[in-house]
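Chain X:
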Amino acid sequence: MVTSPTPIPVEPPLLSIRDLSIALPAGGDRPYAVKNVSYDIRAGEILCIVGESGSGKSMSANAIMGLLPHYLKPEAGEILLDNRDLLKLDEETLRDMRGREMAMIFQEPLSALNPLQTVGEQIAEVMRVHDACPGDGRERRLLELLEFVGLPDPASIRHSWPFRLSGGQRQRVMIAMALALEPKLLIADEPTTALDVTTQAQILSLIARIQREKGMGVMFVTHDFGVVAEIADRVAVMEKGVVVEHGTVDQVLNHPRHPYTQRLIAAVPRLRSSKSPSPDAGAKTVLQVERLHKTYVSGGGLFRKKRVVHAVNDVTFTVGGSETLGIVGESGSGKSTIGKCLLKLTDIDGGKMLFQGEDIAPLPESKFRPKRRHIQMIFQDPFASLNPRHTVGRILCDGPIANGIPRKQAEGRARELLKLVELEPSAFDRYPGEFSGGQRQRIGIARALAMDPQLIVADESVSALDVSVQAQVLKLLREVQQRLHVALIFITHDLRVAAQICDRLLVMHKGCVVEQGPPSQIFDGPQHAYTKQLIAAMPGRDWNPDAAMPNIELASQTA
């Protein structure tokens, strides 16, 4: 007699979301922020939620934590954590569960941390509110957490203010706060978006280690497919509030079925140049920088030594007409400082900056002002750099009018630029707050072009954008450059993006240029140890998006 094997019991999921729907206020683009969303997270696994801005990723994460805005209420579905429906619990019960049963790492730690408390006080507060680790145990637990997340000298750093720490260190503090009471579920909402590749790799490694050692369930919200390839066990893809695809990381990344997933993967920048070298690159030198120096001195006092930082140290390079020069490196490498020096937003300590053959470094503001129109900047955060009280038309016209262009001519040029950056004519009379992040970045590009510059400095101008919007903005920059023959300095920490748009790259480390050359040379045969370290730290570097392309093409032919 053959006996049937005893079935192995399947543990129920740690978190189970069933048919969750969250309605938006009437009058918006769509009726629901989240519509009929269902997925599970089991203990010991990482589920990545991916999609563009507005897809409902963060909304569903906030619903789990009970942190939705007051005007948004789940109108249907269940959120079961250990078989308890969180939607049926009162605020007091939810408050007790936050930190103890579930915890969240927010996208921007500087905004999430209290600037008026030291980081040690904020971590200890989590334990105090929940009456955990009383007495000396709280002090030991605090130092243990700081050491566990890899922060140097826990005894000293606990007394630091958030603004004194780097972005990666602040994110580690947020992780320590989330782990203080060892919750079963950890939600990470875009925790690595603004970090450079080496810091990003450290944070991803830390989260993966914590998940393994603690057996936690992790919900990781991101728009970065490299991060998904690096860390995910399973993936859920969201579009306009709906889960359109769900499966293992191999199924979703290498065999995508839904057209939306296919479009997202097709938009992921490859680590190879898609740009043909500009035929005019190098033909005419627009900018020549020679032995540029910039030093910052901070601190100092009766018992403290001054801290001297060589932000830019003996940097030399040229930029030709219609050429794109990329500057890459970690945070603090001196990339953005170079951009500020070129626009004379900060004084330099030595060197020359020859713009069209004239050294602009020693020029006083009164003499540099007429030249400022020819050197323009596209900033990292378009919302912070656009005046929310001014219409788009005024934002585009103010600069030219201040430089003597008649109002009627400036307004005509502004409308032409809106068409050039593919925005509706009605955008002229609207305000920045009415546009998406990608659209605001297009406004930032139009504003830079309004002055008819010969050189544009783009400082991390696509770092916070979704892959599809990022691809659109990069395509737009290439087309504008080809049409108007503008030289471009593209500052970024994203090596894939640099490969897509740049003719040449400068790799910076601690204020110095350690390597330069075309992208193919930098990525295929890096010479400097630091360049090799940057490339090795890229999340998902072993995943090839092109492996999914035959499947995408086959799916489209079948359809």
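Chain Y:
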Amino acid sequence: MRSLPEADPGLPDIRSPLRYLWWNARRQARSLLAGIGFATLWWLVQALVPAVLGKGIDAVTAKDTGALLTWASILLGLGLLQAFTGIMRHRMAVFNWLSAAYRTVQVTARQAARLGATLPKKVSTGEVVSVGNSDIAHIGSSMDILLRGTGSVVAIVAVTVILLTTSVPLGLLVLFGVPLMAVAVSPLLRPLHRRQKHQRELTGELSTRAADIVAGLRVLRGIGGEQVFAARYGEESQRVRHAGVGVARVESLLEGAQILLPGLLIAVVTGVGATFAVGGEISTGDLVALYGYAAFLIGPLRTLTEAADKLTKGHVAARRVIRILSIEPEVTGGAETSGGGVLRDSYSGVTLQPGTLTAVAAGAPEEAAAIADRLGRYASGDVTFGAVELATLPMDEIRSRILVAGNDARLFTGRLRNELDVRDAASDEEVRAALHTACAEDIVEALPDGLDALVSEAGREFSGGQQQRLRLARALLTDPEVLILVEPTSAVDAHSEARIAERLAKARAGRTTMICTTSPLVLDRADHVIYVEDGRVLAEGTHRHLLAAAPRYAATVTREED
């Protein structure tokens, strides 16, 4: 059994939707060719069954027992071969569907991780959800349909050749009738795809609204807006439903046309064949075989229509996927290396000395957060790390050496231990030490399964203060060279805040740490305090020194105490 997905999906060709689909096809060329081979043989076996039945009937008419046994044996062999090829065709179809879909998941997930905070700025949540929910399925289906679609073309050609050898008029009737059927159905595809696109856009908008409501549910309840937003969600969901009904109307017409039009062709071919049989131009067995061919052609004809539909959907889906894959991150890295040292933001003047605990207090919290983003290379800025520009270091190196932990970080679903020890490298003692520093032991002790307890989506079973302490423990367990914490104690009580400040100073002793805060309890434990106003360093020193020497600093931090 082969495992999916691949370890390395490779670099996709995003120059156009067709090139992306072709890249997918080339990545799984062997399985595609094998599937096409099985599908073609599967169709051909079915195409030969009417001919064998006709020969058997002619043997009965001629009372030739030997010939009847021969053709019956051939029919049995065709049945066994059809069963085998059908199983293998389906197996390869599923494999190809999964390969293309999971490969798309891999490259989009890799791109999402690469883009980081850039992605939600460029693409809405609903758009990303729609890519994950529907577009990967359409891309998988576009690979799957190549098997049956190619085989159906070969089967139609084979039946046409057989009919031409039996009766030239009948063969020509099928030869020209099949393209006419396809042309007759094609006008329905464009409105179908237009309505499907509209429905998908509405679904994406609805998903975005749902994500916003869930994220802000606590706030909405606090201001009494829960029912208002629920009503708006209901209105938008009804628009999605109406759009779905519109899609279903066209799909029902298409399904009906796929049955009606081939049925008309069957009726015409069978009627003409019956006329030839009455006139003695073809035998009774040929007439039965003729009807079998006409009935068989329904399958390949419907498959061709299905192929046109799925390939078009795959093309549209690929366009949306490459839109995400073509986005470039707002910040990029280089190829230099740094031995570490002083981390300095030239714009603000904030300087982090190696091995010290530095606190940054700002008149406006967003100013300190902006400095943290620049120091962590989440935003562009003139920042140096030792003797090297931070922008010239590879992003992987920056992320492994400098960690910015803010309150917008999420807790994910899974076991609590795995959620805290994201690198899966910490011992039990190290996990306990991090929980102790973050004053989070009581959270774990209250859980029936302790560290093995399952965390629900976004850690919603924990209060805001509990989530903040768990996020702090997770940041400490990563043990980066430089740790930057943004308001790590804003949601905890004063008693816990004092203990965290004391323990954090001890836990990070000898390593570079920066805390963005205006809490006097934390500021008093810092080795060095920097006061920022209007984005620039206004004063620096110890907390007690600044309280006496910098009135604006004192006004900012004492407001916290009132």
